[in-house]
Design brief:
Length: 264
């Protein structure tokens, strides 16, 4: 793949239902202390997309202490699609996601968690769903129907999703799933804040776009430990939920049209 091709193409082609269907893709992967998982994940991305679509992989090492950045540097010589970036210290998943999207070349972004629990083989299914969708659908969200987590994490996630849907009415069964497909410009127009990645469907809908959820595979973590605890997630989640609820309630939109100059 020639990276220079990305800045000189609009990255779209005409589809049957949508006026803007991607013909190139930037896969953005935030990673913190995932040295044991990232090589396998990157190879799976290549296996899923090579020959299907022009793509790049923008992997952001979020201040890892386990050598994730060095692993990415080593892998770069064998994976021409890989463009690695690194934060000086851990800034959080949402900041790493934003760094990746800002540096991405394609108008369309697919995201994956760096722990390998999202299956890259699901990305073509998300693209296919986008092709069937009207042009105002700007986000296809993964839905982990069968979770491969411990019972405590599953229960906490189910409860959190119910509370979130009650407050935000976003109609999304699994907003925390890391695999998503969205338009880059639509994402960059959203308000940026820590933990925003958990509220992307609600934020997209707030901006006037539609979102769709698609069942995806969910796998056990390959190695390492989760960066989140149920208590920690709950404490920040309450504040974030109230903030997003306020943003949604206070948002205003107006339709406009050009006033054409007329001559007598």
């Amino acid at each position: 793949m020639k990276h220079a091709a990305f800045p000189h193409t609009d990255g779209y082609r005409v589809g049957s239902a949508s006026s803007a269907v991607p013909d190139s893709l930037s896969v953005v992967i935030p990673a913190h202390n995932e040295a044991g998982n990232i090589a396998t994940l990157l190879q799976e991305v290549c296996d899923a997309l090579r020959g299907r679509i022009e793509f790049e992989i923008v992997c952001v090492d979020d201040g890892s202490s386990d050598g994730t950045g060095q692993v990415l540097w080593t892998l770069k010589s064998g994976i021409p699609e890989l463009r690695p970036f690194q934060h000086d210290v851990c800034r959080g998943q949402s900041v790493a996601l934003l760094t990746g999207v800002q540096n991405a070349y394609s108008p369309w972004i697919a995201t994956l968690d760096g722990d390998g629990q999202n299956d890259p083989a699901d990305i073509p299914s998300l693209i296919a769903r986008l092709e069937e969708s009207p042009p105002d659908v700007k986000l296809i969200a993964g839905w982990r129907v069968m979770r491969n987590d411990g019972s405590g994490k599953r229960i906490a996630s189910r409860l959190a999703n119910r509370i979130r849907r009650f407050f935000l009415h976003d109609g999304t069964p699994d907003t925390g799933c890391g695999i998503k497909l969205f338009e880059r410009d639509a994402f960059l127009s959203l308000p940026a804040f820590n933990h925003m990645h958990r509220y992307l469907p609600a934020l997209m809908q707030r901006a006037g776009w539609r979102t769709v959820s698609v069942p995806v595979n969910h796998r056990p973590r390959g190695s390492g430990r989760s960066k989140y605890t149920n208590l920690g997630r709950a404490l920040v989640g309450i504040r974030d939920l109230l903030g997003v609820s306020w943003l949604t309630a206070r948002h205003v939109r107006a339709r406009s049209r050009s006033i054409q100059e007329t001559r007598p």
